[in-house]
Amino acid sequence: MYEPGLYIRSPNERDVDKLAVLIFRFYSFNEEFDPAWSLASNAEEVSRELALEYIKDGGGVVLIADYDGQVVGYLRAVVRENRILAWSKIGVIQELYVLPPYRGRGIAKRLVEEAGRKLRELGVRHIAAEFPALNYVAENFYKEGGFRPYLNVYVRDVEV
Amino acid sequence: MVKETKGEEVDWYTLSKKLHKFYGGKIETIPKVPIRRLKDFAIWYTPGVAEPSRIAAKDPDESFEYTNRWNTIAVVSDGTRVLGLGKIGPEGAYPVMEGKALLFKYLGGVDAIPLVHRNREIEAFLSLLEAIEPSFGGINLEDIESPKCFQLLDEARSRLEIPVWHDDQQGTAAATLAGLINAFKIVGKDMRKSRIVLLGAGAANIALYRLLKAWGIPPSNIVVLDSRGVLHPDRSDIDRLMISNPWKYKIAVETGGGGLNPGAPLSEAMKGADALVAASKPGPGVVKKEWITAMERDAIVFAEANPVPEIWPWEAKEGGARIVATGRSDFPNQVNNSLVFPSVFRGVLDVRARTITDEMAIAAAEEIARYAEDKGLHEDYILPTMDEWDLYPRVAAAVAVKAVEQGVARRTTTYREEVERASLIIKSTREKFKLVWESGLIPKPPVDYE
Questions:
Q1: Residue B286 in this model has a pLDDT that exceeds 90
Q2: Residue B51 lies in domain
Q3: In this prediction, what percent of chain B has a pLDDT beyond 70?
Q4: Which of A103, A153, B37, B208 is most buried per CB count within 10 Å?
């Protein structure tokens, strides 16, 4: 889908406030699905710190969707390494969020495609995505994008 | 004798309890073919019946011609949201479904069978509907909790080849739309350019939103509020809504919250609005007089909660409302889905329709509005009443013609033809009933009201 006015780019200092809001909304949304995702009381503050880190950090991939000058979505992926594997590097999408009025226009898909390109440049063969097991919106999105189940992650309290 | 005195309500509960028990429910099935001698059963039953059976087996659509399927619907409920009573289960829902069946027959000549069940889970509910489809010409869903009812209706409409209607959504919405159309005529405003506020985001208003949109009102002119205020794309629970109630989520995104703040209260939303449709919780006091004063001139206020409207009609008028409608029969302008469902089903059954589209619901609403207009609109008459029985054939005809036009009917008809057919069916039903009653075969009620 071609969206005129949509521009996928790296964030800069001017985007801090808007990126912070998106990060906060991403985590508030996922808080819903599992107690292990409960937010810290200063989560809004931390969102801002994270936004600043993401803008500086070169370790992974952070992209924002700029729509007619508005920051309407973002993606963050990291690279994980395991030397014993033939393809030792894997890119993992850890955060992906698009504002409600801009959904259904293929913006998230564009973010994932662009992240794929960037990750390839970093020597990555596979791209994975992490999201709460009960988030079926995310599940449907990645399945439609050609992702297959890859890793099961289970959780429980340390004390049983 | 239970007396109705001024200012004092009849004790309908006691009366109803006694009479339901006395009559053992409200409906029964009665043959409509001649049974002159026992030999007649060779026609109606074995061996003769094998022939219609063979025909219907070969072409299932023929079952509409050779059995009473063409005129029979199921009134289906799991009892999860019974009017004013809540989640009382299937047995508790039965008296209501049976009452609905009575209305279907009396007002629309439709044979309706109460069907209450335990399949609350959505998939189980749907497979039940699919399983019973061959018995019926249509399904009327009733008293099912929200938001399950939305998914259920959407899914059932796509899976079944017979009309599925959820009266708490579409019936109420169509009656409301009819009332709004006429109210706007009286105040002389263009409804498509007006600001309409919907209070309550349950079955009725979510369906109304859909109908208003289909009728041509831009979503940005509509504001919808739930118990947490204006539905808005920036509300903090918006992502949660996408999962838990995608219908509300969609409204928030499409309307953009009407330029108000996320979660803004009703008092804010009503400022400068042309119409308010409240389908929320019983009042009084849910809507305040001062808020109506802040609306545009010639405000239209529909307060549909039962038994007590969100604001009393006289209070709304004192606040400056020009037209007020409620859900009650003892006030003018009753928004009553009994104006809708008997005739909608009369129409779709007569053309063997496969579904009821939003356009057909709109056709019903517009015909109801036209009927009242033909009689002469004024502030206290924007909608017909249930006793104007010649309304029903007209609405049936409007729905039937729309079904034919949209290619969802198995049979064709014209407006005039369907008015005649529906009038005949409804009149003969009433005459039969009158005869039986006058013959004394139905015992006189041992207790009564005056």
A1: yes
A2: 12-169
A3: 98
A4: B208
* pLDDT tens per residue across span B381-406: 999 999 999 999 999 999 999 999 99
Query: Best mutation site among B239, B240, B245 for testing chain A: the one with the most A CBs within 10 Å?
Result: B239
* SS3 track for chain B: CECCECCECCCHHHHHHHHHHHHCCCCCCCCCCCCCCHHHHHHHCCCCCHHHHHHHHHCHHHHHHHCHHHHEEEEEECCCCECCCECCHHHHHHHHHHHHHHHHHHHHCCEEEEEECCCCCHHHHHHHHHHHHHHCCEEEECCCCCCHHHHHHHHHHHHCCCCEEEHHHHHHHHHHHHHHHHHHHHHCCCHHHCCEEEECCCHHHHHHHHHHHHHCCCHHHEEEEECCEECCCCCCCHHHHHHHCHHHHHHHHHHHHHHCCCCCCHHHHCCCCCEEEECCCCCCCCCCHHHHHCCCCCEEEEECCCCCCCCCHHHHHHCCEEEEEECCCCCCCECCHHHCHHHHHHHHHHCCECCCCHHHHHHHHHHHHHHHHHHCCECCECCCCCCCCCHHHHHHHHHHHHHHHCCCECCCCCHHHHHHHHHHHHHHHHHHHHHHHHHCCCCCCCCCEC
Determine, yes or no, domain membership for A155.
Answer: no
Tens digit of each residue's pLDDT (9 = 90 or more) over A26-57: 999 998 888 999 999 999 999 999 999 999 97
Which of B169, B198, B220 terminates a domain? The answer is: B169
The answer to whether B240 faces chain A, any CB pair under 8 Å, is: yes
Best mutation site among A22, A30, A32 for testing chain B: the one with the most B CBs within 10 Å?
A: A32
Lowest mean pLDDT among B36-40, B198-202, B242-246, B366-370: B242-246
Distances (CA, A) of B300 to B137, B171, B241: 38, 20, 30
The whole domain housing A92 covers: 6-144
Domain boundary among B326, B360, B392: B326
Catalytic hit among B23, B32, B45, B281: B45
- 359-378 in chain B: CB under 8 A from chain A: none
Instruction: Give chain B's mean pLDDT.
Output: 95
Q: Is residue A158 part of a domain?
A: no
The model's confidence at residue B9, banded by pLDDT at 50, 70 and 90, is low
Kindly list the residues of chain A whose beta carbon comes within 8 Å of any beta carbon in chain B.
25, 28-29, 32, 99-101, 103, 135-137
* Cis check: omega of the bond before B34, within 30 degrees of 0: no
- All residues of chain A having their beta carbon less than 8 Å from the beta carbon of residue B242 are 100, 137
> Residue A14 maps to which CATH number?
3.40.630.30
